[in-house]
Write a structure and sequence with these properties.
The structure is a single chain. By secondary structure, this protein is an alpha/beta fold. The protein has one domain (43-247): Vaccinia Virus protein VP39 (Rossmann fold, 3-Layer(aba) Sandwich). It has 9 helices and 10 strands. The protein has helices at residues 5-8, 46-51, 54-57, 73-81, 94-97, 119-124, 150-159, 177-188, 229-247; strands at 14-17, 21-27, 30-36, 63-67, 86-91, 112-116, 130-135, 160-171, 192-196, 202-208. The strands form 2 sheets. The protein has a 7-stranded mixed beta sheet, sandwiched between helices. It has a 3-stranded antiparallel beta sheet with strand order 1-2-3, with no helix packed on it. The radius of gyration is 17 Å and the shape is globular.
Length: 252
């Protein structure tokens, strides 16, 4: 069946496989998402492990939404380790959604749904208030302007529950990185935390509608208790780094 004009406006990603991994790319120079084929639920890229540190502040959210599916790393992780959480994933590119089975993204069910849509529209007219909102929206050109505008961050704030948490993946090398951070600060005030990933290419921003260092005080190394031993061991170095950043002066 020929593609519709609507589908044709979106760039098709491609899949690159090695012996042990499967990765989603828009260009060969940059990885959008990578999966360990023997452990498809593992968070293989460092920035995803940093984003998962939202569990230190909100270990068992009722309502969680994600903007950006990619290869489904965060979606699979949350589906597996947050069994009581209702999860909605918003992805604008139909070609990305079409690859969900290749990346072992679970099928939709009563608590997990992947929907095609515009993330900016989703937070502007949220169907319900969110406990956690994860934003990881990238295309071939990087971060779409609609997902890093002042209006977008204001709408994210409004879409959250009174003590809700926003977690954003920013490209640290983006020419407007400081502008984006300033916009988030304008919306959330002092209640933000910036944590760079291991190679410095991404910065994860944790922004709280309530008090980040108070109500969302990081848990100890035994939390979240519902992670299996291997996953906990993989995540603890990153979780410890997030807790350390908060203790050393963030939010700023």
């Amino acid at each position: 069946m020929p593609e519709s004009a609507d589908h044709a406006q979106y760039l098709k990603p491609f899949v690159y496989e090695t012996l042990n991994t499967r990765a989603l790319h828009f260009s060969i120079c940059e990885i959008q998402s990578r999966m360990q084929t023997q452990r498809p639920h593992a968070l293989d890229l460092d920035y995803t492990r940093t984003m998962a540190a939202f569990m230190l502040f909100s270990p068992e959210p009722d309502m969680l939404a994600m903007i950006g599916l990619g290869g489904g790393s965060m979606a699979k992780f949350c589906h597996r380790f947050l069994p009581a959480t209702r999860i909605k994933v918003i992805e604008i590119n139909p070609h990305v959604i079409a690859l969900r089975e290749q990346f072992c993204v679970p099928p939709d069910d009563g608590r997990f749904k992947v929907r095609r849509g515009d993330g900016a529209d989703f937070v502007r007219f949220p169907p319900y208030r969110l406990d956690v909102l994860l934003v990881d929206g990238f295309d071939y050109d990087g971060q779409p302007p609609a997902l890093c505008s002042q209006r977008f961050y204001d709408d994210c704030h409004d879409a959250l529950q009174p003590n809700g948490l926003l977690v954003i993946n920013l490209h640290a090398g983006h020419r407007d990185f400081d502008v984006h951070v300033a916009r988030i600060r304008r919306t959330f005030g002092a209640e933000i935390l910036l944590v760079a990933d291991a190679d410095g290419s991404n910065t994860i921003v944790f922004a709280c509608k309530g008090r980040l260092a108070g109500r969302f005080k990081p848990a100890d190394a035994r939390r979240p208790e519902h992670l299996d031993a291997d996953t906990r061991a993989e995540l603890m170095p990153t979780f410890t780094a997030v807790a350390r950043a908060l203790a050393q002066g963030e939010p700023a």
